[in-house]
Write a structure and sequence with these properties.
- Helices cover 42% and strands 27% of the residues.
- The chain is of the alpha+beta class and 328 residues long.
Length: 328
């Protein structure tokens, strides 16, 4: 095959795609399909976390795009460039699409179905292989990604335990009752606090929210100590609603809220959600200031009747996770 550019040129584009995947919190793998005249027919980067799809490997995405671009499933005049040695699934896609040549950067010794093992048999005997192109750059990406991942896990003080059992629901409700009664007296009347806790944060209310309304509650634990809780819900518009985030009085100022927000941003990236939004009482100046400093922007306000002549008079704030991530 007579390509217009050398292997390093096309692999450098694949490395760039891998870097884009890493910025989204994905394992950094990039791929492209190049026709024999040098035309790039398909590009792909790892999207498994974002798409929540086990099939969303960089190679499969690139092959799919190339088939649509070229108008057929036979890619026998094409080469595949990928930063990591293809796995068993992607090897099958290479075989079925009749790709003539595979060029990869970093070997994957951990995969039992790695491409070179299959190539040593008869299955992929007609496929040409070039390994180790820009191997150092590809390995550096992986090392950076997993070093950062290990660092984040090591630095975390909190354990996020999802509330599922009856006992966990009772624990979360007890935390809510304690925190609300020490946190809100400066903003709400005692009568409204009692009413809101019973209606929205009692064990009965939490159970209904978890089982029927799509909410997830998490206990925030430092070692064996309960320091607070948070509650979230996927909205149908690609956003995450942060319903509750409360830390006990004696645990504030220790960086726990920062860890929660990092957890929520990772959660968004892993689940393909592009923004976090929340409501905050207009008279809660401290909370409003905190959210603004964390990059949230005001997107609206509203008054909600919650019964018994009580209302929630709130601002609505939003953090665009993709934009915030891209700015790092």
């Amino acid at each position: 095959m007579n390509f217009l550019k050398n292997d390093e040129y096309y692999m450098s584009i694949a490395v760039g795609l891998a870097e884009e995947a890493m910025l989204r919190g994905e394992v950094p793998v990039g791929a492209l399909v190049v026709r024999s005249d040098g035309f790039i027919a398909g590009r792909g980067s790892n999207r498994r976390q974002q798409d929540r799809n086990a099939l969303a490997h960089a190679e499969v995405i690139a092959i799919d795009e190339a088939c649509r671009t070229l108008g057929g499933w036979r890619l026998s005049e094409c080469a595949l460039y990928v930063t990591l040695e293809p796995c068993l699934m992607c090897s099958g896609a290479i075989l079925n699409s009749r790709i003539k040549r595979v060029v990869f950067g970093m070997s994957d010794d951990s995969s039992p179905g790695a491409f070179t093992r299959l190539k040593s048999g008869s299955l992929l005997r007609r496929t040409e292989v070039t390994a180790g192109v820009m191997e150092r750059e590809c390995k550096e990406l992986f090392e950076r990604f997993f070093k950062k991942l290990r660092s984040e896990r090591k630095m975390s003080k909190l354990n996020f335990t999802e509330v599922k059992t009856e006992a966990q629901i009772e624990t979360a409700a007890a935390l809510a009752d304690e925190i609300w009664h020490e946190f809100f007296p400066s903003v709400l009347s005692a009568e409204q606090i009692d009413y809101m806790v019973e209606r929205f944060q009692s064990a009965r209310a939490m159970k209904e929210q978890i089982n029927s309304e799509g909410y997830k509650y998490f206990l925030l634990l430092n070692g064996g100590t309960r320091v607070g809780y948070t509650a979230i819900r996927h909205d149908g518009d690609g956003r995450l609603f942060l319903s509750k985030l409360y830390v006990k009085k004696d645990s504030r100022g220790k960086g726990y809220a920062t860890e929660v927000f990092e957890f929520l941003k990772r959660y968004c990236r892993e689940n393909g959600l592009k923004a976090i939004w929340l409501t905050v009482n207009k008279h809660n100046d401290t909370a409003v200031s905190v959210y603004e400093k964390r990059g949230f922007r005001k997107i609206g306000e509203g008054v909600t009747d919650i019964g018994k002549d009580f209302v929630m008079d709130d601002f609505y704030f939003q953090l665009d996770v993709e934009q915030e991530r891209d700015g790092i």
